[in-house]
Design goal:
Pfam families: FA_desaturase. By secondary structure, this protein is an all-alpha fold. The protein has one domain. The protein contains 15 helices and 4 strands.
Length: 371
């Protein structure tokens, strides 16, 4: 794995000023960069959306198959709610100022069938450091059936990827739960992110134990206790994951795989751009005025703010967004955003369609600058 380095001289004034301005905001308002009291209520709320329907089914309060399907769908939405609003910030260390509480709430990851440490390596280390850099950011890693960047080979079936992507997004958490964690242990050992074979053994043991617990509680127990046929229970379990996987994919994909995004392909270790500017050129916001959406997706419609300040809790994004917009304008840098969630999704699928039909493309912002 190539360990890329970013320029410390190009646009260094912007990088220094944006950090200074945001730090001054927190200092002036006497605020901590981590979550406030509202985060505790949101955590309880998100866990309730996920666990209460399950408890109602286990205790026999909900027995009608149609209502049970509704309960599992609600659990899928609850899983996405936890993933974006609790687990995400906890594993970034930004949900609480107390490390122990972040670690505790990070255990919501195995509660959903995911290994939190491996998620941190993929998301915090690789994705946040090397956003949209080919062969480094696993979020755009070639998946053969999907082409996310113009730097990846185009195959005949990619012509239809904007159609079948929905199905693949819906099985994303199922794939992670079933096989992805196991594969990543060995991939990260090879890349040096996991340092020793002993660490591989420890991590693999933890994964196996957590998967047995997760499947035992959320699949085997319902099969044993529910009056519905086993195949129907399995179908409802998979439906929950389909709802969660699709929801999470449609939240994260419009942040980086959109027409305005830059996609970097190079062999040299040195990237001729400042890290902060690189984040701006590869990231896009959406629906910033939609407070309800922002609440339920953990502020991940403010991806620019999140990428520039990953250890700041999402409750602060709307305020620091104003600071970042002013600073980018001062330095004549773009600030990409879509006005609504719908337009962001259209933008994402527009790019998927274009990537399925064209080998080389330019980001929208380059076309605008050229004009």
């Amino acid at each position: 794995m190539i360990r890329y380095k970013f320029s410390r001289t190009i646009n260094k004034e912007f990088s220094a000023e944006i950090k200074k301005n945001v730090n001054e905001y927190f200092k002036k308002n006497q605020l901590k960069k981590t979550g406030n009291n509202t985060v505790l209520f949101k955590t309880i709320f998100a866990l309730s959306v996920y666990l209460v329907p399950f408890i109602l089914m286990l205790t026999g309060v909900i027995q009608n198959p149609i209502l049970m399907f509704g309960a599992w769908i609600t659990m899928g939405l609850g899983m996405a709610f936890i993933g974006t609003s609790v687990m995400h910030d906890a594993l970034h260390g930004s949900l609480s100022g107390k490390k122990m509480l972040n670690n505790l709430l990070g255990l919501t990851a195995p509660l959903m069938g995911v290994d939190g440490r491996l998620w941190q390596l993929q998301h915090n280390v690789l994705h946040h450091t090397y956003t949209n850099i080919e062969d480094a950011d696993e979020d755009i890693q070639p998946r053969y059936v999907l082409r996310f960047t113009p730097n990846q080979p185009r195959r005949w079936f990619h012509r239809y990827q904007h159609i079948y992507a929905i199905f693949l997004y819906s099985i994303s958490t199922i794939q992670w739960m079933a096989i992805k964690d196991y594969i990543k242990v060995f991939n990260y050992r090879r890349k040096g992110l996991i340092k020793s074979n002993k660490e591989v053994a420890i991590r693999m043991t933890k994964i196996i134990i957590s998967k047995i617990f997760y499947l035992g509680v959320f699949l085997v127990l319902p099969i044993v206790l529910f009056s519905t046929p086993a195949w129907l229970t399995v179908l409802m379990f998979l439906t929950m994951h389909a709802v969660a996987g699709l929801s999470l994919s449609l939240i994260f994909q419009p942040a980086h795989v959109v027409p305005t995004s830059d996609f970097v392909m190079q062999d040299e270790q040195m990237i001729e751009e400042n890290w902060s500017v690189h984040q701006i050129l590869t990231t896009s916001n959406f629906a910033m005025n939609n407070k309800v959406l922002s609440y339920f997706i953990g502020g991940l419609n403010y991806q620019i703010e999140h990428h520039l300040f990953p250890y700041v809790c999402h409750v602060h994004y709307p305020e620091i967004s104003r600071i970042i917009q002013k600073t980018t304008e001062k330095y004549n840098l773009p600030y990409f955003y879509e006005k609504s969630f719908t337009s962001a999704l259209i933008s994402h699928f527009k790019l998927l369609k274009t990537l399925g039909r064209q080998d080389k493309i330019k980001p929208d912002y380059e076309l605008r600058m050229a004009a």
